[in-house]
Amino acid sequence: MAKRFTKSAINWTEFEKRVPIDQRTKFLAFKAKAEMYLRRVQANPPEPPKINWEEYQKIVPVEGFVEKMKTEYLGFQVPYPKDTFTAKVDEQWKSLEPKIKEFCAERQKDIDTAQKEINRIKALPKFEDMTMEMFYDMYPKDALDPVNRPTFWPHTPEEQPGYLTPEQKAMKKGGH
């Protein structure tokens, strides 16, 4: 007899967390259908009912018919397919585990870098409280420096003396 299913092998709560919101209705329909199949399997007894062969022997007048049916019934085996994929899946999982761990480690580095940047930004004074001098002390390359790097209003690169457009830079590189 095949292994009796007592509960679903699917972790529905974890599965539901991974389903996109726009596909939630399809997921719920799939879950309902899977649970319906499980209930239908559980409605049947784990073993087929026992047949009282002696009772049939008394009722059936044909000689040897009940014996023949009994041997055929007891000899009948439902062919269940053999599981040939679990080993392949486990092998693939083992080969993928190091790659997954490496990917997770790389993402953790990204998370740590982002967390450092977030902490650095949180450590800054509020925008309303920051003065131009504080900004200059924190970001000397980005701050307005009228003594060492004077600029003209509106202080954009396009409005400054000696500015070259990207096309002019390309022509200058090409030597034309």
Characterization of this structure:
It is a single chain. By secondary structure, the protein is mainly α. It is 56% helix and 0% strand. The chain has 7 helices and no strands. The longest helix has 39 residues, at 85-123. The relative contact order is 0.04. The mean pLDDT is 87.
User: How many helix segments?
Assistant: 7
Structural class: mainly alpha
Query: Quick one: biggest sheet?
Result: none
Unreliable runs, pLDDT <50, ≥5 residues? none
- Assembly classification: single chain
Radius of gyration, taken over Cα atoms and rounded to an integer in Å: 38 Å
Gross morphology: rod-shaped
The H/E string reads: HHHHHHH
Number of strands: 0
Topology:
Elements: H1 12-17, H2 24-43, H3 53-59, H4 65-75, H5 85-123, H6 132-138, H7 166-174
